């Protein structure tokens, strides 16, 4: 038995060749669109088959199964699912910016529902799809044999519609992919018209010039594009990243609550999956501010309702949804298409130029076809005119001829006619001999000859062809154009951690043993003076307690003169009764180093200086911007003398006054302008001259109409108007604020604060007893007086600090930063045998905006326990 010739081949070479052949087949015949009509082969075959079946937009629908069968049997020998899926997409108004198939029945939904089976649905072409097939019967495009050679199919459609850009496309080939976004038809037509007007210098047309017309992609599902850079990159190079954001607005509902209404979602996002994702985030406690979630979408459009809990910040919740769900997505533009059968990356200008070239070729071929037909018709009409001019002779010649062929030859010889003319005369009906019909022939001849002249002029003039293309674009825009659905924001908005953090007023506490925690602002309720106070922890007293906002930056200053920075929301939220976590887990402290002051800074651009005071009475003022970027290992804030410690830091803005109080009852008041601004490495200048054994115990910033509240180790306190403290020069001895004769009974001064008479404070003891009360509950006394017992202490417990909670409206005083630009000073005091500590709490407003501007909320602690 003969088995033929055996060839030895290299399997590696054979596999490489076979794979490359397969890859090119996928690239050119399946996955990538042609730049001219923007269609893949299966889409082109569907539209051509439907046109061949007579399914125009004004004709009855036909079953989708019949259309799929027509495509499979004639042009596309693949699975019916591939054809039906492609046809379904052409009919989906949420997938196509301008649908090309008019579907009747269930063609799927934005929720990811599948279309009904092809035996149930019906379809026909849309009017816009017919614009893609116009003039296909006029030899405008090349045809090729179908898969079995029995029929012809077009290699490309002679489309008037710039479909590649208008509807976009997506496809994955072998080793490459395309992802072209849809655009607005009117904008694309305007850009084509602009290119035609500048066709002689088309290479000089810039992306920015084209973007005057094409603002950006226009997705069928709407949404917003964030930023122009991704669009500009895609249009210039063919590659770019476009951020698409859902359209949502915030509504206030009963009870002071809010809800977020989503009315548009990003392109190609499954709405049902989006809603399920939001529900998962709520179940997993990733987002804890949502109380209800409903999909109220109907035929009128998308509507997803997200109701929030009472007190929830809607803007923060919306930012979290944009961050963690597909309410914000990225569309990766990859403008890859087939140019002369080869994949090419296209810029916007190049894509438009290639479409114009395609239309030039189509119009040229159509004109040539029509010119040839017009010439043929004119030739026939010339023969008919000759016959009508010699009608009697023509009739005699025909009557004298024995056969039709003899008559044909006789007419040609006698009247010098061509065979085509002679046959037309023989085929002419007798009714054409009437006078009226004769005039019609003459009129038609004049029209045909004029048509010939017009077509010849058009073919001779490339400019006229371009003008015709421009007119076609204007006609398309007028007939099918609509308004943009997708908005374009000029600046890209990126999420920072602050955008995802609820804006809340909090208290930050640091204990004597070096633990830190963040608590709700109402963790401590108000109590009357001398009441039995709240015990936080009997083994670890709160040493520093200050108010802040979750979005503030917290600057931690240590006794060694170093500073660290951390966001308030990064400090763990822990219950009041629990200890917290070590401060060393937040900032990198050295062995034996302690945090002695903390400042909450809402904005490094809004306050001007940090004013620092040491235990030995040195003061220094430094521009706050030098602390805007503190490395994790910390930086130096002040140079200290041997034995000295940094104790207090306040935010000031250059023209305020400072008051210092010492343990032995001296106080000095002077202007901060007496302290020149210094660099971070400076050690400061003298603030107060201390007596033997004395040290600074408190520092604060003067507020007009304020009072100085003072507390001693044994629980004595008083408040004195600041007008009793005269303004002095820096580095003096100051004046008496507690007569020395009372020190044995009252104990040393442990803390002093400038307070508002309508404010409230917390008194903290060494054993963790916290008393919250109104300032007006404290006795008002003269500068040198003793004061009264304000806090009942047990055993060896001592009062060590005052935390000022403040009064937001009272804080808006002349000579100070506005409430939304201010953070009150934080301070510290000495720890150890005397148990004294200094502390300062902020009482400030924060720009808690909703939609950019919302009513400011004061940072006052709630009047509840």
Description:
Helices cover 28% and strands 24% of the residues. The protein has 19 helices and 44 strands. The strands form 13 sheets. The protein has a five-stranded antiparallel beta sheet, with no helix packed on it. Strands 14-9-8-17 form a four-stranded mixed beta sheet. Residues 527-538 and 808-865 have low confidence and may be disordered.
| C-alpha end-to-end distance | 104 Å
- Please, what is the average pLDDT? 85
Which outline best applies?
A: elongated
Task: Output the structural class.
Answer: alpha+beta
Residue runs with pLDDT of under 50 for 5 or more positions? 527-538, 808-865
Name the features.
five-stranded antiparallel β-sheet; disordered C terminus; 44 strands; alpha+beta; single chain; 865 residues
Topology at a glance:
Elements lengths: L10 H21 L9 H12 L9 E2 H11 L5 H12 L9 E4 L17 E4 L1 H7 L9 E3 L6 E3 L8 H4 L2 E4 L4 E4 L4 H13 L9 H5 L12 E3 L2 H9 L1 E7 L1 E7 L3 E8 L6 H13 L6 E6 L8 E5 L5 H11 L3 E7 L1 E4 L2 E4 L2 H42 L1 H10 L3 H12 L3 H9 L7 H26 L1 H19 L6 E3 L15 E7 L3 E6 L13 E2 L6 E8 L3 E6 L3 E6 L13 E2 L12 E7 L7 E6 L3 E6 L11 E2 L9 E7 L4 E6 L3 E6 L13 E2 L9 E6 L5 E6 L3 E6 L13 E2 L6 H4 L2 E7 L4 E6 L3 E6 L13 E2 L9 E6 L3 H4 L14 E2 L17 E2 L10 E2 L7
Parallel strand pairs: 8-17
Antiparallel strand pairs: 1-3, 2-3, 4-5, 6-7, 8-9, 9-14, 10-11, 11-13, 12-13, 15-16, 18-19, 18-21, 19-24, 20-39, 22-23, 22-25, 23-28, 26-27, 26-29, 27-32, 29-42, 30-31, 30-33, 31-36, 34-35, 34-37, 35-40, 38-39, 38-41, 43-44
Helix pairs in contact: 2-3, 3-4, 7-12, 7-17, 12-15, 12-16, 12-17, 13-14, 14-15, 16-17
